[in-house]
Amino acid sequence: MPMTLAPALLLALIAAAEGRPPLEAEALVPEPPRHLQAAALCGRGRLLIDDDRATSLTEARGLFERAVAEYPRDACGHAGLSRTLALLYVRGVEEDDALIAAALTAGRRGVEMDDSSAEAHAALGRALLLDQQNPEAERAVRIALERDPASVPALVAAAQVQSANRQHELARETLERAVALAPHIPSIHLALGNVELLGGDDARAVEHYHDALTLLPGYVPAQLQMAVAIEAMGGYRDAAEILREVLEKHEESRSRAELFMGLSLMKRSRWEEALIVLGRAQFKTKRWISGGTISYYKGICLEEMQRDDEAVAAYRDVIDNYPGATAGFSDGEPLSFRAFEALGRMRLAAGDIEGAAAVMEEGAKRTGASLELALGLARLYSDFNYPQKAVSMLEQAVHRPMTPRIARAQLEAYVAWARLLPLVKDDGANSRLVESLASHTEALHDLDDRVRDLDAMRALSIAGDGPQALTWLRRATDRGYAHVAWIQDDPELESLRKAPGFDDLVGKVSRQNSPTN
Fold this sequence. Notes:
Layout: H1 7-17, H2 38-51, H3 54-70, H4 75-90, H5 98-113, H6 118-130, H7 134-147, H8 152-164, H9 168-181, H10 186-199, H11 202-215, H12 220-232, H13 236-249, H14 254-267, H15 271-279, E1 287-288, H16 291-304, H17 308-321, E2 324-325, H18 335-349, H19 353-364, H20 371-383, H21 387-397, H22 407-420, H23 429-438, H24 441-447, H25 450-462, H26 466-478, H27 494-497, H28 502-512
Parallel strand pairs: 1-2
Helix pairs in contact: 2-3, 2-4, 3-4, 4-5, 4-6, 5-6, 6-7, 6-8, 7-8, 8-9, 9-10, 10-11, 10-12, 11-12, 12-13, 12-14, 13-14, 14-15, 15-16, 16-17, 16-18, 17-18, 18-19, 19-20, 20-21, 20-22, 21-22, 22-25, 25-26
């Protein structure tokens, strides 16, 4: 029987006979043909993202990584990978803060490869929001919708940014457009439920969570949020049963379920039980829902139980070790600033006014300090008869870009500043307030929010600038505000009532909205 040589050995022998070096082994094995194009890999990856289960997201990551490796100049792989990494982090499938930076890198790469891609800009917007860069995230999702107003990923990303900026009504409208285009995606119904829950409509939230669970039974994020909504409606037993089911069937979500259960106990002032349950929750991350989240809520429990030294240690743990921890993905405010407020509150309760001011000033000086913290410190100074310090704190606090997220607190700060004006010896304080508020005119117009217009009206009236206050009232009425009768009796609006044209405006609005019309 003749001997047969393997092809590789045969070629090597021929090369040797001809005096040539043998071919490298890998050169003898051709690369497998790329039967699957980027569009096929990305299309399948998108379907897995829509499924939103842990196993599906892990599979999606593999597909998008392959798309990026084989088609590095195609935007869809980078955009899909960015979306997937963000979801793996948000859903807690992978507890690794490095995923945020990786999602940002992939999102930016997608936009670089195709600036016309709505999906790429939307993915970048989500990653920026996850990195707590809200203004940049807002710009990215706005560009995404300009590229394609009917892009479902762009609509969902825009709604997430709007919700984070506390524009809940706008987020609802955006998500309703997304549902009309893609009613089969469970995560959109989940997002709608979250918006309703944040807006205070618990019953509507339950309906949306039920829709998500109908489409995807055992969908853990919807189960957890369903428990919160049902509990808010008084269904404590039903909520507890949902959380127990998650604990029993979804080991990967155990810590989140323990956190939710601990919060439930806290709402019923069962502090000791809540502390035990919170102690069972373990997170590996330092940002968003993390160990800092647990420390903050433990601090509240310990404070309520009058275990002050332990409470202080818990709050300091948040401040020193978890500056990026938050209460959840719909609330990007770092809990470290609430921890500063809590420490100030505790020192006040102990009669240590100077200590309270010192710790709150420490927080107010930190980058990204919340306006709520500045307002709290200003109230503290005002209550203890330091109006000049209060005005100085408020003047510094409002000197930042006005965004939808902070607009309410920012205008509240202007009103507080105006109320303190009669108590300070500063001839230029009134004009500085008016000029400072005027610098936000364009941002206030962009908000398109009548309530914020009325806040600006109040601050300006208290500061004595009736004509400017009337300008903001007119803007509110031009956009449909009709309840003007109360203005006649509000003592803080005297300057407004004296402004030329006020009576004509109120009379016109009253006639337009009378029953006879």
